[in-house]
Write a structure and sequence with these properties.
This protein is α+β, with helices and mostly antiparallel strands. It has two domains: 36 residues; 138 residues, Ctag/Cox11 (Ctag/Cox11 (Pfam 04442)), CATH 2.60.370.10. 21% of the residues lie in helices and 38% in strands. A five-stranded mixed β-sheet has the order 1-7-9-5-3. Strands 4-2-10-6-8 form a five-stranded mixed β-sheet. The radius of gyration is 21 Å and the shape is flat.
Length: 185
């Protein structure tokens, strides 16, 4: 009798633990990607304090902008491509415009390709860190401040990289914050 009760409690505890792990998996995966740069996830830093200094080597950075069909916005980079010195702080902007007569909210997802370069692409300021609000037919320029860590030159996977693409997709805030179970996160 005791062994059946013990087994039942262990199974219940294991089921609860697995359920908790399922709910925590998305934030844990996001944290893993941010720490490692896995999947082209960029790094977020407060400033270029790594002692990184600008080198003479340059890299071409391209910008890509997409909008989920559920968000009635026009979204594009102000510059499609720039050349930057590795280690140099740069500021670029994207333009967003609401195409509706109602207030809207959006949130941006981002990545870098090639994926191995993600851990060296450091964003100091980015619109993707916050929910964006646009009023009826309102437009806004959204800044991104970044630098490419010179350590990219020492990594065998990335030292020959000459082009990086920073890609954003804007989603409706409401649809981006729905879990697969239909509940808001």
């Amino acid at each position: 009798m005791k062994s059946n009760r013990s087994i039942a409690l262990q199974l219940l505890a294991m089921s609860v633990g697995m359920l908790m792990l399922a709910y925590a998996s998305v934030p844990l995966y996001r944290l893993f990607c941010q720490v490692t740069g896995f999947g082209g996830t960029t790094q977020r830093v407060a400033a270029n304090t790594s002692g990184a200094h600008s080198t003479q080597r340059t890299m071409i950075v391209s910008f890509d902008a997409n909008t989920d069909p559920q968000l009635p916005w026009e979204f594009r980079p102000l510059e499609k491509t720039i050349t930057v010195r590795i280690g140099e702080n740069r500021l670029v902007a994207f333009h967003a415009k609401s195409l509706t007569n109602a207030p809207t909210r959006g949130t941006a997802a981002y990545n870098v390709t090639p994926h191995a370069a993600g851990k060296y692409f450091n964003k100091i300021q980015c619109f993707c860190f916050e929910e964006q609000h646009l009023g009826p037919n309102q437009s806004a320029n959204l800044p991104v401040s970044f630098f490419i860590d010179p350590a990219i030159l020492d990594d065998p996977e990335t030292r020959d990289v000459t082009n990086i693409t920073l890609s954003y997709t804007f989603f409706s805030y409401e649809s981006a914050n729905k879990s697969k179970f239909g509940k808001s996160l």
